[in-house]
Structures are given as C-alpha cells and as structure tokens.
C-alpha cells in the first residue's frame, strides 16, 4: 500500500527545547505545522539545566516564565575556591561574586532540569490546543525538489516518516505512554509529508543535517568531564551557590545547584589534551565521578544517597558552515553548534535559534513578509554561535588552567561575558530587519515637511540622540510603566507577547504640552491615511493591529491627559468590546505614581522630543526615528513586507 | 436497605470559597476529611469578585497567588465623581486616589470572578491528590449526640447525606460533568457519616446553621442594588479604575473593573429606607440596570453587547450570635455574616474564617493541640464580622448620602478602613493563642538565669521594644531577606507555607559578634535539651520540625558567618538529604547584597539584641520575647499543646 501523502507548511523534527520553541511559535502564529519526535516521551532527568535572563524573557513572552521561576533554583552568587597557599592539599574560598544578571533584566539565572522546561512547553501547546508533539515517529528520507526551491508558495520538501505502533494523538499525546486497553499492536505506518519549510531540531547527531549534506566543523578534544546530579551530603559551605573549584593535585570541578536539593557537579576526568592520556569512558560510574569531586573538595566531605542523573562528555567546539539550505530547510540548536556545558548556554542558545527563526517563517508562510528575510536567520544566529564557541574555548582554558594563570580572577573573567551570556547583549544586524543607526547629521534638513511643529523642521536628531540607550538590533530593555486607563504598573515586555506581530512603539513624549500633542496627532493622522503602512500591509477587514500593533508610551502626567484625548488610532474601537485600553501607557511622571522606573530616562529618550521605535516580533529593535519620520517607517516596512493586495494564495498540492 | 455508615474526622458542607479554603487546609494537614456540595459544578460567572491583600497572602501560602495575580485586574486607583456645581445634570471627577494597599503587603487588591478562585482551589486539591469535592450531594439530617460532645476523640456528629445519580469520584470529581458511557442512572444513594467535627460553609441560607438552631441577627433594609458584569462600550474616561459616582437626580453607582475587559456596576435601584418605596425586583433586567447607570454617568454614554452576569441584592447587615456549637460544629462565611458587597470584602472574610479555623481543627484532630483552642475561633472571627458590619453600615451611608454630606471625601473615608479591609490590620487576642504584650518593666529581673551574656541578665526589654513594629495578634509583616546558603532573596512569608506547623522565628541579631553568637548557641542548647518544647510536643521518630519549625533570620553579614557555624539545630541533618539549608536566613546587612528591604528595621528589631517570635500556623504572631526567654516559649506551648506522650489514640467507631 502506498503511504498517504499530506501537506504541511512547516515540519519541525525534534521535540527538545529548540524544537518545542519552534512549535510554540507555530502554535501562537496559527501555522499549519507538525512536530515529530522519534522518542516515546520527553527527557525525564538531567541534560541541560541552565536558563539565562533573555531565555526567561522569551519564555515569558509565551506566558511560561512564572511557573519555571517558581520551581527553579535562582543563581545569586558564584564562588571560586583554590588551593590554600599554606597547605595545598586543602582548598579555600578565594572569591565571592554576587551575580548581577538581574541588573540586565527582570529575571535571574536559573537552574532547572531540561525535562521541566519541555513539560512547560508541552503544557503550553496543550492549553493553546493547536499543535501537539507526534512521538515515536521516525524520519526515513528527505528529498528536496530543486526546481521548486525558489517558489515560496510551493512544497519542495518531501519527507517520508514512519509512525510506530504505540501512537499518541491529540491532547493526550504528551501525557506519557499509558497502554490503551484493547488497542492492538499495529505495524508501523508510513506517511509522506510534502512541506514548504523544515526545521531540523534533532540535536548533535542531527539526521536532518546529514540529509542536507552539512557537516559540523571543528573537532573534539581529549578532555573528558563527568557530570552527576546528586543530592549532596556534605559540609562544604558553598554547596548551594555555583562554584568553580581548583585543587592542586586532583583537578577541577564546577558546581551548579538546582531544584529539589539537587546539585550538579562537572568533574574533569582526564588530563588536558595529551594524546596518550585517553580515558575508557565506558568504565566510569557516578560513584567514581563523585569520589573524584570529593577529593577535589578536600578537606570537605562529599557523598550522596540519591543520584538523579549522570553522564560523561568530551569537550569539543563545533559549528556548521551554514544553518540553512536554500531558505527551505533550517537547522537549530545542537544540530549546528556544540560546545562545552560549562557556561550553561546550550539550551538557551538553542531555544533562541528557534525564537529568531520561526516568526520569520510564520510571516513568510502567511505571505506577510518577503522570503528574503529568511536570509537573516543564518546571518544572525551563526554569528552568535561563533561568538559562543570562541567564548567557550576561553572558558575551558580558564577552567583547565585554574589557579595557575592570569585567568584566576573569576569576577573579571565573568564580567567580560555576562552580557552576552545572559542573552541580553545579543545584537543583530545591520541587515534588512535592523536599520543602521543614522549618524548625527544636524545639518541635514528634515525629509518630512508635514510636521505641524515648525521648530522641529530644522532639527533632526540622530538615532542615537533620540534614544541613546536603546541599542539597535538588541532586544528592547524592559522597564515598568503605567497603563494609562488602569494606572496599573506593568513591564513593557508584557505588552510584547510572542504572537508574530510587529510593533511600532510611539514614545510620544510629554503630550500635556500642546505642541507635543499636536505632533502626536499629526503622526496618527498620517498613520491613519489610506496609503499608510498600517493600511498597506493589513488586509481589509482585519483588525488594524493584526500585522503591526501601535503601542504608545507617553511621558505626560496621567493626571493631566485624559485617555480619550489620545487619538483613537492609539486605542482602537471595537463594536462589541468598546475601546482598547491596553495600548496606551504613561511613563512614571516625576515619580508621582510610586517608587518605580523612569523608562524614558532608562532608554535615554528626551521627554520633550519622543521617538518611534519599530520592534520585531522577537522584541529586537529594528529602527529608531523621530515622531515625524513616518517615511522612514514606511521605507523600512516596504523593504520587508508584502502589500496585502499583492499577496499570493498558496495552493495546497502545487508541489506535486 | 440501611444506608452505609462511614467515619470521618471532618466534614465540610459547601464548596464555595470558604468551604474550599477549609478543604485546602484539610488537604495540606492530611486530615481524614470530606467536602460535600449539593451543586453540580463550581460557580461559572459573577458573584463575589474582590480579593484583598491578606487574602492573596493566604492564597500564596497554598501556592495559589501567582496564577490568580496573572489573570486578575489589579486595582491601583479609585476615583470619585460628583455633580458638576455649574450644571448638576452632569458629573465631574472630584477626586483621584492612588490605592496604597501595596504598602501593606506585596500584593495589591484584585478583581476576578469567584469561579476562577474556586477553580484554583479545585486545581490545588487535584494537584495535592488527597481530597476532592463530592458534588451533587445533599445533606438530609444532622444529629448531635450530646453525651459525646466533650470527648474530642469521639464522633458525636451524625450526618445523613444523599448522593445523586451523576456522581463524581476521585481526581475527576471537579472536571465537570461529562457523561460516562454505559453508566446507568442510579437511584440516589444515602450514607450516614459519623464525624468528629463539622464545618458549615453553606452560604447565606445555611442549612447547617438551621440544624444547630442559630439565626442571623439584624435585618434587611429596603435598599436594592442591581449588579451587572458587562463589557462596557463607553466614553467615560475612568471606566478602567474603580469609581464611586453620585448624580443629583439619578442616584449613585459604583464600578469595579475586572479581568477580560469586564466591569462590574453596582447601581442603586430604589430610594433609601422609606417603606412605601418597595421595588418589584422580579421585573428588573440587566438592560434596566445599565440604563440607570448610563443616566447616572451623563454626559458620558454607556451600553454593552456582552453581559456576563447580573443580579439584584437588598442591603442588609446580619450576624449570627455564635459561630459554633459546642466546639464541634462551626459556621464560616455567609452562613454567619452578611453585608453589602460595596467593600468587596465578603469572599475575603469568608475565606479568612476558614483559614482561622481549620488549622486549629487539624491540630486538635491530630491530638497535637488541646480542644480548648477551638474557643478562639468564635472569639477571633465574630469580632472581625462585627467590625466589618459596622464599617459596612458607614459605607452604605456614605454611598447613599454621596455628594451631600461630610462623607464626600472618599480618600479620607477610605483611609479610615483600608488597613482593616486589606485584612492585614486584623488583630486577634489576647487569648490562649496570642500572649498579651509585656509592659515595659526594666526594673524586673530576668527570669532566665542561664544566659551566657551577663549583660543581658539585668535588662529585660518589653515585648514592644524588642520588636516595636511586629504587632501581637496580627499577621507577621513580610519583607525580603536572604537565604544564607543560597544568597537568594526571598519573602519571609515564603518560609511560612500553610502546612499546619507552628514556627519559632529566631531573630538572632548580629551573630558575627561573639557575644551574640554565644547567646544563640545557648538558646539552641536549651531548645535541644530532652525536656525542651521541641522534644515535648514532637513524637519520637518524627522530624524535629514536624510540630514546631525553627527558622532563623540573623542580622550579620552573610560574608562574615559560614552556614556551618550556625548551630545544627537550625539546619537539621537528614541522612538521605544532607543538611536543610532552607531554615537559615540573613537580613540584608547594610544593603551589601542589593537594593531591597532591611527587615530588622521594618520590624523594629534591634540588631544587637534580636528576639524570638512565635508564629501560629496562620502566620499570626502569638508571642514576642527575648532570645533568652525560652521559659516564656515553653509556658506558651504548655497551655495549648499536648505532650506527645499524653496524646490519646482516636478509636474509629467509638461514637457508635
């Protein structure tokens, strides 16, 4: 019997953190997508366990951060231990560093096992009710029809899969593998999926990567680490903070505390590099790893009754030469970059690959954006992977050398990397999605002749002076502001959920000033015109905010401006629901509404001037320009979006 | 056929918020308890909708606050509107009050419909897996066997119930009423439950109250209010904050915004008091209520497309003369007090009744505490109800008089009540569970001769000077402190989950000072003695913290004191799990660990002196005394707890 043929806009292979992040986007954007995994269930114990600030922000954009934050270990301190100079058979604390990651955002670094993260994604998908993971499903072959690769309405991908006899379906797919009574064992079922796009999130041994002929570059070292997750019984005083511990004779260990009294130990097993010193990893046991850690910790004792998980890994830094093929097949996560787990970065960077990629795919699949934007995935994420790998080499070097080198100072070392590692410092572009900052060119005339406020005709501040602390290409830093109508204090990021929409942030300035309110009205009148970008890219009949949502944060006192004096475009009316009060916000005017942030000051935005900020669906900053610079915004969107009248219908089956 | 007879330590009748709070305690304390409800499902829309700060703290002690906080409307501002003096057919804003409830705790006042709260309890019970609500179950008769009433090991309560044909069972009890295939309709099944204690949480028309011969006292007025929950379509600018609105001719309305764009309107329908002005409530419709609100709001417009719920109520203030019978049957919530909904207090006070009661029942049922402590329920909660009813009369008066009276100033009016209404200002005792504050008696010699620090022998500070801002009988105010081992910043309340244990909070002071550390060691040595209260009330073989948990918050720098220099009693060892690092905390020493609270300063505790604070399982303060005053703690517990060696076994069936 011929296998049945089905069509799908997007297939995701692999349901680890990277694959599930891709599925979460697909669910939120309402894509016709499939998520396949060859295993029977999610990871139960161990594996990756570190979450950084930016990852928490991203999880929060899907509503998942709080549940994870409640359960996880919160990292607040890192300590260094080194040999006691007076008795080098003992270690002593040489440094105590307060983790400052919370300065970078509203979350801190967490320790929680990968399976819990996966479970939160599974629960999310179930709540949303659009997608579920198809488990026990193997991929058999992958063919690409070259002739169709450049037609983005076509289905050039032909994926043959085999679903095995214990099938999962619908909402119960992720509830585990209960035996269903009276269900007979069936022979494996084959299916051919014709797809427009494919995401390979199938890990370090990626099948997808092999199919498209890519190989990881860079090699493995001979350095082997043992990893154990144990509930330690010890008198080591820093057992509940993360430590980097160097002994004179027994080598090094790193610790990272976790949920439920667990602590992870990374223990260096074999000496560095030398060819003759290979280790028979098949003979290593968790008892051996812990015994070695105990020796390193001397004079402190270490033992355990409960070991949750353990493993051995060999340090290696590898990266794929490309993260995609023809902008139809994309690779994310371990499939394209591997490195040591010492920085707890792996799961984060992997999920961030998908977070970067799938909104772009969603916009292209829906015909909103031009397929060219897919080029930015490789450009943006490969450079992140390369930076990470460079950093990982330095980190491994630091850990190997330990007390004997300049790198001894952990604080200094950590400071070099923490912004990048937190994920908050990651910067994209310039490219089609991030517009190069305008240099200070006060001499140039304004291109906009329609501004009512005559005084602004001759001044044209540079991007940098408009918002000196909003870095182009980075994610927008979040601060607390007030909902204008409710007076509720909310984080700016809470207005930016992951739903695939672009946002135009109107930082309107102090609109209690007549001239500034006039500028805002002019802006809205221009955005409300039939030819404006809001109308060009939004299908007739759809809500005005369905492609680009306009959000306002003004800098006037809430007490001086009534919500209905703001132009209606900023608080759109719905005949069933009334006005939308969740698009207009106020900066905390001279602290009159409590002891919290001054977002304008934090962003470096002048309250008498204001500015426009275009945000990508992943919260990264595309463009900053003046309130009068509607043409710049028009220009930006015209290079990447497709006018709704020119969108092509996708004919299912055209790939046959 | 004779109905089957079963035995239960506790039966809860009614699964509204008060009954579910009782069930939550029973679940957490592992009681043999039943929760019966005559309805098929929880409330779906409308009813109560206000949550105050203390209620959120309580919900948080069961792990439920975050989910509710995320979904609910957060009240930050209250506005008064009154007739425009220049044109009294119009209203104008006369006052804008920033709600300061967040000053009282870490939560703010919320608006969320009762059914969502109930669902959170149902989910909680399901997660815990010990209890579920038995729905569609009617109570038929209640008899009390007088001879057994004073024997607290006996089962004097005989409750006959009838379970109807669509039954619910186990974990699926609260999943709604799916039809189970092939389940035949059965005739109602009767059962006789012999119980030790009964909680009647069956509302304003309480069947339980009638059975024990109690009647509410106080009457209903002739003032009728209409209530609608609508998604308003309006140009009234304060529609998303809570308003008290008085018009000259059309009367008054109050508004309270809610989740999902809803706003509740309370609209006065009939004029005050006059006998001749009775209203035919059967003819009122939601359209009429909204029409009236719209007239009051003039010149603003009001209409709706979606009405979520509506009702009519007649203002009345009533209270039962007693909240219990023979310390075996207890009434909570609307069963013993009713008042107007104007303060959004009802659901809060009702849940707080159960929160006050059921840990006491749990301790008596388990034999840990003497039955006498049950007297405090009536004493503590009836006085709260009476205060609330007095306040409600003033509030109704204020709303009726509106603009025409001294009560015009909402801010001033609100300020009088906000601490009480928030629930944070509720104060219990003095009684057997709250020890009267010691007056300043510096002249009296110390009763304790064992203190190592000679200098403290002659000084004996009063309770007030030991902790000048910890009010006896009130709930302990929560501030941020550091976990000593993890450096994590946590709220003190997070250490006080609702699990039925007493806590001794050791505010150890600056133990980096040798003398202060010596005082702490002496304290621990005394508490560790075989005759100490920790041993007297804790069964042999049970964990040392199973009845009274000792928690330490010291005021030394975390950097100057190693966790293992704290006495082991404060971080007990477990042979499988190692040391317990979640009992030792540090005050933020001179702000060295970040920009957050100085809990000692907030509590008015001297860092060179410290003190002991005994906390009830409901977080209320029983006793404050000096670090050397172990006898006072002994004395306190000896009056209310039963030494474990004298605890009686409960013989099931002895009530027959």
The count of strands of chain A amounts to 29
Q: What is the CATH top level name of the largest domain in chain A?
A: Alpha Beta
- Poorly predicted spans of chain A: 167-184, 441-459
Largest interface, counted by CB within 8 Å of the partner chain's CB: A-B, 38 and 38 residues
What percent of residues of chain A adopt helix (DSSP H or I)? 10-25%
The second-level CATH architecture of the largest domain in chain A is 3-Layer(bba) Sandwich
What does it look like?
The structure is a homodimer of 656-residue chains. By secondary structure, chain A is of the alpha+beta class. Chain A has 3 domains: 4-72 and 112-216 and 318-383, FAD/NAD(P)-binding domain (3-Layer(bba) Sandwich), CATH 3.50.50; 220-316, 2-Layer Sandwich (D-Amino Acid Oxidase, Chain A, domain 2); 454-646, 3-Layer(aba) Sandwich (Glutaredoxin). In chain A, strands 1, 2, 8, 9, 10, 11, 18 and 19 form an 8-stranded mixed sheet that branches. In chain A, strands 6-5-13-14-15-12-16 form a 7-stranded mixed sheet, with helices on both faces. Chain A is globular. The two termini of chain A are 19 Å apart. The A-B interface holds A 66, 70, 73-74, 76-77, 96, 98, 231-235, 237, 239-241, 257, 261, 305-306, 483, 485-489, 559, 562-564, 575-578, 581, 593-594 and B 66, 70, 73-74, 76-77, 96, 98, 231-235, 237, 239-241, 257, 261, 305-306, 483, 485-489, 559, 562-564, 575-578, 581, 593-594.
List the helices and strands and how they pair.
2 copies of one chain form a homodimer.
Chain A: E1 4-13, H1 17-28, E2 33-36, E3 50-51, H2 53-61, H3 65-71, E4 73-74, E5 77-84, E6 87-98, E7 110-111, H4 114-128, E8 133-134, E9 137-144, E10 157-163, E11 189-200, H5 207-211, E12 220-234, E13 242-246, E14 252-257, E15 263-268, H6 286-297, E16 302-316, E17 318-319, E18 324-325, E19 329-331, E20 337-338, H7 346-365, H8 375-401, H9 410-422, H10 463-466, E21 480-483, E22 489-491, E23 502-509, H11 514-528, H12 533-536, E24 548-554, E25 573-574, E26 578-579, E27 584-586, H13 599-603, E28 611-615, E29 621-625, H14 630-640
């Amino acid at each position: 019997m011929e296998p049945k043929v089905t069509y799908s806009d997007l297939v995701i292979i692999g349901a680890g953190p990277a694959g599930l992040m891709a599925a979460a986007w697909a669910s939120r954007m309402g894509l016709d997508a499939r998520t396949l995994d060859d295993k029977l269930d999610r990871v139960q114990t161990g594996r990756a366990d570190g979450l950084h600030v930016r990852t928490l922000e991203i999880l929060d954009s899907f509503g998942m951060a709080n549940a994870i934050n409640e359960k996880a270990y919160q990292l607040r301190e890192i300590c260094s231990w080194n040999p006691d100079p007076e008795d080098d058979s003992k270690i002593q604390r040489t440094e105590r560093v307060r983790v400052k990651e919370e300065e970078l955002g509203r979350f801190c670094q967490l320790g929680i096992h990968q399976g819990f993260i996966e479970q939160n994604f599974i629960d999310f998908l179930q709540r949303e009710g659009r997608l579920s993971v198809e488990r026990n499903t193997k991929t058999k072959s992958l063919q690409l029809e070259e002739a169709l690769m450049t037609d983005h309405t076509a289905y050039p991908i032909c994926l043959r899969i085999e679903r095995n006899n214990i099938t999962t379906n619908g909402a119960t797919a992720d509830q585990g593998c209960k035996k269903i009574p009276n269900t007979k064992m069936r022979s494996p079922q084959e299916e051919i999926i014709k797809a427009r796009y494919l995401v390979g999130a199938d890990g370090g041994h990626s099948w997808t990567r092999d199919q498209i002929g890519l190989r990881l570059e860079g090699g493995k070292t001979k350095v082997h680490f043992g990893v154990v997750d144990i509930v330690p019984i010890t008198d080591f005083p820093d057992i509940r903070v993360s430590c980097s511990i160097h002994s004179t004779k027994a080598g090094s260990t790193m610790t990272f505390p976790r949920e439920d009294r667990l602590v992870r130990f990374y223990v260096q097993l074999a000496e560095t590099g030398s060819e003759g010193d290979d280790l028979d990893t098949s003979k290593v046991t968790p008892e051996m790893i812990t015994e070695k850690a105990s020796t390193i910790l001397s004079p402190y004792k270490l033992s355990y009754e409960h070991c949750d998980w353990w493993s051995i890994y060999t340090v290696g830094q590898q990266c794929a030469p490309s993260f995609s093929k023809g902008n139809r097949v994309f690779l994310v996560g371990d499939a394209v970059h591997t490195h040591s787990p010492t920085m707890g970065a792996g799961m984060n960077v992997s999920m961030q690959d998908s977070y970067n990629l799938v909104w772009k795919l969603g916009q292209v699949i829906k015909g909103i954006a031009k397929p060219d934007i897919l080029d930015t995935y490789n450009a943006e994420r490969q450079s992140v992977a390369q930076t990470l790998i460079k950093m990982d080499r330095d980190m491994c070097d630091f850990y190997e050398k330990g007390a004997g080198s300049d790198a001894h100072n952990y604080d200094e070392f950590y400071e070099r990397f923490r912004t990048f590692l937190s994920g908050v410092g990651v910067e994209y572009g310039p490219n089609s999605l991030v517009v190069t900052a305008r240099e200070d060119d006060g001499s140039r005339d304004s291109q906009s002749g329609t501004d009512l406020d005559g005084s602004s005709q001759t001044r044209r501040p540079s991007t940098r002076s408009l918002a000196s602390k909003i870095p182009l290409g980075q994610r927008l830093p979040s601060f607390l502001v007030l909902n204008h109508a409710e007076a509720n204090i909310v984080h700016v990021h809470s207005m930016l959920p992951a739903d695939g929409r672009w946002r135009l942030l109107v930082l309107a300035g102090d609109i209690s000033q007549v001239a500034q309110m006039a500028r805002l009205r002019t802006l809205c009148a221009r955005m409300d015109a039939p030819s404006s970008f809001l109308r060009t890219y939004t299908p007739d009949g759809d809500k005005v905010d369905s492609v680009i949502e306009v959000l306002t944060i003004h800098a006037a006192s809430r007490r001086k401006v009534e919500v209905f004096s703001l132009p209606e475009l900023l608080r759109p009316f719905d005949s069933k629901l009334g006005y939308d009060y969740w698009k207009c916000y106020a900066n905390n005017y001279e602290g009159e509404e409590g002891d919290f942030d001054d977002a304008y000051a934090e962003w470096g935005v002048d309250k008498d001037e204001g500015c426009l900020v275009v945000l990508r669906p992943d919260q990264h900053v595309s463009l900053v320009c003046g309130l009068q610079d509607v043409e710049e915004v028009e220009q930006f969107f015209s290079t990447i979006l497709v006018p709704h009248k020119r969108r092509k219908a996708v004919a299912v089956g055209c790939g046959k």
